[in-house]
Every structure is written in structure tokens, then in C-alpha cells.
Write a structure and sequence with these properties.
Layout (H helix, E strand, L loop, with lengths): L1 E3 L2 E7 L10 E6 L2 E7 L5 H17 L4 E4 L19 E7 L10 E6 L2 E7 L5 H14 L5 E3 L12
Parallel strand pairs: 2-4, 6-8
Antiparallel strand pairs: 1-5, 3-4, 5-9, 7-8
Length: 158
């Protein structure tokens, strides 16, 4: 089943069942994903900015991202990427001078590519690397797909 992606939520937490030596854990459900970040790997301000920007992106561009969801495999994001190369989405830590004044992060999107520019000092390199691994699986393998053209049928909403 294909769902419109309606919610991406980031939160800094003490553990939230994050495996040892890991910076984050993603929990996916129909139309949504939660990103739990171990305390010390991201600034709460960054999470607030990411949450606000995701609300704008998902709320203002209905149907831009769709999720192929099969509830029989709720931990599918944990599987290693298969390298299908459907889309390239990544986090990249940049100096403050590369962002507009006061911005903690900035999304840069074009067809087939999406980069989150993250202000240096607000996330650890380990978190960035782990997010990039998750994104290779989620978007690179087509679990979530970028929809630039009108979808043939409207995606379902959870």
C-alpha cells in the first residue's frame, strides 16, 4: 500500500531503546516516522527546526513524498541498504557561514536528490553518518519515494 508521508518527528531522548553505541533509532509506521536521538548527539534546537521544516515540506506539498508500507515488516528500515539508488537523500554538516543567518538546518531538494544542510555543532558526525545509512535504505531502496510528477492515484492517508 502507498501512503502519503504526513509526519516526520525528531526528538532527543535519554535512551528510548536506542541500541548501545548508536546515536539514533528510527521507528516507522504507516505515513510517518519518528527519529529518536540519543542525548548528546543533537541539540534540541536542531530537532525543533527539523520538525518545523518537515511540517512545512509535508504540509505544503501534498503527495511530494510517498511511503510504500507493509505492516508485516515494521523494522524494515533496520535492514542494510540494497543499493537500488532510487533517490539520494543525505545529511551534511556545514559551517554556519553556509546557512542563512539564524538557520539551524536547510533542506535543498531537486528531483532525485535531497540534502539536509545541518549547522556544525548541532549534530555529531556519528548521528549524521547513521542518518545517512538509514536514508540510503529508506529513500535509496524506494521505501519512501519522491514524487515530482502527479501521482497516478492519490496516496492513502493513515
Amino acid at each position: 500500500m502507498i501512503y502519503e508521508v504526513t509526519n516526520v518527528q525528531f526528538a532527543v531522548t535519554a535512551t528510548r531503546h536506542i541500541p548501545e553505541r548508536r546515536a539514533c533509532l528510527l521507528a516507522e509506521e504507516a505515513g510517518a516516522i519518528s527519529v529518536y536521538i540519543r542525548d548528546g548527539h543533537a541539540n534540541k534546537r536542531l530537532c525543533d527546526s527539523l520538525n518545523e521544516l518537515h511540517r512545512d515540506l509535508l504540509g505544503g506539498a501534498k503527495g511530494r513524498w510517498a511511503q510504500t508500507w507493509d505492516g508485516r515488516d515494521p523494522r524494515r528500515v533496520e535492514a542494510p541498504p540494497k543499493g537500488r539508488g532510487v533517490a539520494d537523500v543525505q545529511w551534511k554538516i556545514v559551517p554556519a557561514s553556509a546557512l542563512p543567518t539564524g538557520a539551524d538546518c536547510l533542506p535543498v531538494e531537486e528531483k532525485g536528490h535531497f540534502t539536509w544542510l545541518i549547522r556544525e555543532g548541532l549534530a555529531t558526525q556519528q548521528l549524521c553518518d547513521e542518518m545517512n545509512d538509514y536514508l540510503k535504505r529508506i529513500t535509496g531502496d524506494g521505501l519512501w519515494v519522491q514524487r515530482w510528477d502527479d501521482p497516478p492515484e492519490p496516496p492513502h492517508r493513515p
